[in-house]
């Protein structure tokens, strides 16, 4: 899939190959108190572009999950996201939760992404295959537009760029802090990028 | 006796001292209102020291076994004009005591010996009576101070000692550390297991 | 501005060896002067804000995994001359560090030995995340800490302070350090806690641990007569819930 997308890109623009990249995503779930049964997750095995597989999970009231995101463009820290908060934290947080908070949180899903990065004018395009273990889950593309940091303006520009590529239909995510509603002149922060990744990579967990 | 003249002279001086001390004391006692005890005390002290030095001097200068007042003999020097001052001479050389003084002397010499032990016993009794009459422990402040409403008196003892006396009960180290670790207030902290007594060092398992 | 690297709370994960001493109020200035002399440096004093969190969920019977108290720590900015920092104290915009200190291990070593894990927050709603993590605020307190370094030993002289109880202001449950003159010591006798600690990267690095233990023993000897550095009761540092 990746070469196909890259090919498309090449047809429209003169992309500059700048290297490989990788990402890691972990999803944890609040451990359910013993006595409550949980439906086992079903994952769709057919590959799709960022389309959420039909995954259903019975979760405790408040549906609590937590996601860690390890991105190359923010190397020293993890992006940690829950339904109600998103932060950046030192990497040691992962060790803390794994060794001392295992009574509260269990790992549920680990995804790895591997792919290539291209630069096209002011755009940076990252394309990666998402794998869960040996299972291919889909392709993820991140388009970064550097010159403008105002979300409202940038969205328009990026959307235009993507639509012009003629790629196969996929899910376009551009979620700001307000989850759709954007404050006037809101500036980009790494949390916005993190939020988008987490939304996409959650793959429907927690409904 | 080396120099009878000088000894006599100094003894006379001491006797003079004694007389004036006695006079002063007796005057003080005879005033309309007794003077404060501090004054009487000082008079008494003066008397006592005068007597002491006098008796000391007497013993030294007129050692008892050897000398007897009546054995002192005085005589005029050749240069004394004995012819013209015959009356004066005889007066000076007269050793006979004034009749009043004679009486005193006889009376004193014949008085029964004073039993010192009895005297001290009696003194002790008097002191004890006085002591029992007073309450030494309950009232720290004098009547004067109590009337003035004195709350406390600064005695000038160093601050450090004062702090020790007013020691405020503080928290143990363990209680403070437990609060730092768990946020549970010291008052609410359950006791640690018996084996965990402070100061026992590393637990041996 | 991130705290300078040697300050106590900036490191993330390490094994800590330590000795403690309880210092009466009257002796604190003298002890500080003496240690300052030994180390050849002036103490760095900061006011720390501590939020102690407890897991919301009670421990399940039979569950063999432990639940721990968790702390969030930040440094309180210095008060301006007129007693108030612009805009007051905003608990949510402070730069917090998460810290979980494990219960000290039972050991024959002449020091307290424990694991410490931590992670610093960057951007985002730190307090909101800790809430999502499944914790609730148990207590807040402040601590004035004077730090000195002697070779590998981090020496801290600390006093726990409590803010006046106030229910009026928003976020009052987190505690407000201003005005700092209103903070009262937890201990009515105003005593201080002296701690000498060595941090070792891994508890499996026996050589470093030995070096640390010996350094602490040496420092204890140096301070003999001035104050007694002892192995504190292990369970007094227990962070396990129940």
UniProtKB/TrEMBL annotation, chain A:
The GO annotation for biological process reads:
regulation of transcription by RNA polymerase II
Tell me a GO cellular component: mediator complex
Q: Where is the composition biased (Low complexity)?
A: 34-55
Keyword terms: Activator, Nucleus, Transcription, Transcription regulation
**Compartment(s) where it occurs, according to its Swiss-Prot or TrEMBL record:** Nucleus
**Superkingdom to which the source organism belongs:** Eukaryota
Q: Which GO terms describe its molecular function?
A: transcription coregulator activity
Residues passing through the membrane, by range: none
Span list, region Disordered: 34-59
InterPro entries hit by this protein: Mediator_Med20
Tell me its family. Answer: Belongs to the Mediator complex subunit 20 family.
The role this protein plays is:
Component of the Mediator complex, a coactivator involved in the regulated transcription of nearly all RNA polymerase II-dependent genes. Mediator functions as a bridge to convey information from gene-specific regulatory proteins to the basal RNA polymerase II transcription machinery. Mediator is recruited to promoters by direct interactions with regulatory proteins and serves as a scaffold for the assembly of a functional preinitiation complex with RNA polymerase II and the general transcription factors.
Quaternary structure, from the entry: Component of the Mediator complex.
Name of protein: Mediator of RNA polymerase II transcription subunit 20
Automatic annotation (TrEMBL), chain B:
Q: Which GO terms describe its molecular function?
A: transcription coregulator activity
Asked whether the UniProt record includes Transcription among its keywords, one would answer yes
Cellular component per GO? Answer: mediator complex
What would be the name of the gene that encodes this protein?
MED8
Subcellular localization, as worded in the UniProt entry: Nucleus
What keywords sit in the KW lines? Activator, Nucleus, Transcription, Transcription regulation
Q: Which family does it belong to?
A: Belongs to the Mediator complex subunit 8 family.
Q: Write out the function statement from the record.
A: Component of the Mediator complex, a coactivator involved in the regulated transcription of nearly all RNA polymerase II-dependent genes. Mediator functions as a bridge to convey information from gene-specific regulatory proteins to the basal RNA polymerase II transcription machinery. Mediator is recruited to promoters by direct interactions with regulatory proteins and serves as a scaffold for the assembly of a functional preinitiation complex with RNA polymerase II and the general transcription factors.
Name the chain's protein.
Answer: Mediator of RNA polymerase II transcription subunit 8
Name one process (GO BP) from the record: regulation of transcription by RNA polymerase II
Describe the subunit structure: Component of the Mediator complex.
Q: Which domain of life is it from?
A: Eukaryota
InterPro entries membership: Mediatior_Med8_fun/met (IPR019364)
From TrEMBL, chain C:
- Can you say where in the cell this protein is located? Nucleus
SUBUNIT field = Component of the Mediator complex.
User: Is-annotated flag, keyword DNA damage?
Assistant: no
Organism classification = Eukaryota, Fungi, Dikarya, Ascomycota, Pezizomycotina
Q: Which family does it belong to?
A: Belongs to the Mediator complex subunit 18 family.
Entry annotated with the keyword Transcription: yes
Matches recorded under Gene3D superfamilies: Hypothetical Protein Pfu-838710-001 (2.40.320.10)
Give the function comment from the record: Component of the Mediator complex, a coactivator involved in the regulated transcription of nearly all RNA polymerase II-dependent genes. Mediator functions as a bridge to convey information from gene-specific regulatory proteins to the basal RNA polymerase II transcription machinery. Mediator is recruited to promoters by direct interactions with regulatory proteins and serves as a scaffold for the assembly of a functional preinitiation complex with RNA polymerase II and the general transcription factors.
Kindly list the GO CC terms recorded for this protein: core mediator complex; mediator complex
Gene name as annotated? MED18
Which InterPro entries does the protein's record reference? Mediator_Med18
- Please give the name of this protein: Mediator of RNA polymerase II transcription subunit 18
Which GO BP terms sit in this record? regulation of transcription by RNA polymerase II; termination of RNA polymerase II transcription
């Amino acid at each position: 899939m990746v070469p196909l997308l890259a090919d498309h890109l090449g047809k429209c623009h003169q992309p500059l190959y700048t290297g490989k990249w990788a990402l890691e995503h972990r999803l944890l779930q609040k451990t359910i108190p013993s006595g409550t049964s949980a439906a086992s997750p079903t994952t769709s095995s057919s590959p799709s572009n960022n389309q959420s597989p039909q995954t259903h999970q019975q979760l405790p009231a408040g549906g609590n999950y937590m996601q860690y995101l390890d991105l190359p463009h923010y190397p020293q820290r993890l992006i940690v996201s829950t339904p109600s908060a998103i932060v950046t934290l030192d990497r040691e947080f992962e060790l803390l939760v794994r060794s001392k908070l295992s009574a509260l949180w269990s790992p549920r899903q680990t995804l790895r992404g591997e792919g290539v990065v291209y630069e096209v004018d002011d755009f940076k395009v990252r394309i990666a295959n998402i794998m869960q273990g040996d299972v291919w889950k889909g392709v993820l593309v991140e388009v970064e537009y550097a010159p403008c940091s105002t979300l409202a303006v940038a969205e328009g520009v990026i959307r235009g760029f993507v639509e012009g590529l003629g790629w196969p239909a996929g899910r376009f995510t551009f979620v700001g802090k307000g989850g759709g509603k954007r404050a006037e002149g809101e500036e980009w922060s790494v949390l916005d990028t993190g939020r988008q990744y987490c939304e996409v990579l959650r793959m429907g967990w927690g409904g | 006796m080396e120099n009878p003249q000088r000894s006599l002279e100094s003894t006379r001086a001491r006797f003079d001292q004694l007389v004036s001390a006695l006079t002063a004391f007796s005057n003080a006692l005879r005033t309309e209102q007794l003077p404060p005890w501090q004054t009487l005390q000082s008079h008494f002290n003066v008397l006592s020291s005068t007597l002491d030095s006098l008796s000391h001097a007497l013993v030294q200068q007129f050692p008892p076994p050897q000398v007897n007042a009546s054995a002192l003999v005085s005589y005029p020097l050749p240069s004394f004009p004995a012819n013209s001052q015959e009356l004066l001479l005889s007066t000076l050389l007269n050793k006979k005591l004034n009749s009043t003084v004679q009486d005193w002397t006889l009376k004193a010499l014949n008085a029964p010996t004073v039993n010192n032990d009895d005297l001290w016993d009696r003194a002790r009794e008097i002191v004890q009576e006085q002591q029992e009459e007073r309450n030494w422990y309950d009232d720290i402040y004098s009547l004067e101070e109590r009337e003035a409403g004195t709350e406390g008196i600064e005695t000038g003892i160093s601050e450090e000692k004062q702090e020790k006396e007013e020691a405020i009960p503080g928290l143990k180290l363990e209680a403070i550390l437990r609060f730092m670790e768990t946020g549970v207030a010291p008052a609410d902290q359950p006791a640690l297991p018996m084996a965990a007594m402070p100061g026992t060092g590393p637990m041996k398992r | 501005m991130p705290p300078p690297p040697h300050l106590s709370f900036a490191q993330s994960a390490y094994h800590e060896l330590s000795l403690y001493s309880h210092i009466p109020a009257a002796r604190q200035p003298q002890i500080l002067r003496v240690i300052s002399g030994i180390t050849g440096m002036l103490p760095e004093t900061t006011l720390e804000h501590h939020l102690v969190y407890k897991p919301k969920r009670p421990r399940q019977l039979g569950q063999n995994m432990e639940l721990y108290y968790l702390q969030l720590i930040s440094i309180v900015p210095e008060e301006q001359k007129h007693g108030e920092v612009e805009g007051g104290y905003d608990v949510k915009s402070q730069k917090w560090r998460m810290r979980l200190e494990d219960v000290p291990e039972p050991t024959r070593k002449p020091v307290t030995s424990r694991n410490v894990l931590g992670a610093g927050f960057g951007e985002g709603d730190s307090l909101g995340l800790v809430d999502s993590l499944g914790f609730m605020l148990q207590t807040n307190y402040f601590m004035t800490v004077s730090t000195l370094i002697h070779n590998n030993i981090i020496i801290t002289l600390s006093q726990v302070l409590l803010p006046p109880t106030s229910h009026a202001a928003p976020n009052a449950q987190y505690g407000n350090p201003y005005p700092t003159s209103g903070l009262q010591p937890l201990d009515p006798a105003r005593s201080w806690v002296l701690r000498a600690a060595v941090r070792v990267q891994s508890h499996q690095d026996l050589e470093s641990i030995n070096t640390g233990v010996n350094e602490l023993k040496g420092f204890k000897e140096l301070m003999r007569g001035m104050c007694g550095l002892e192995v504190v009761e292990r369970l007094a540092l227990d962070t396990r819930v129940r």
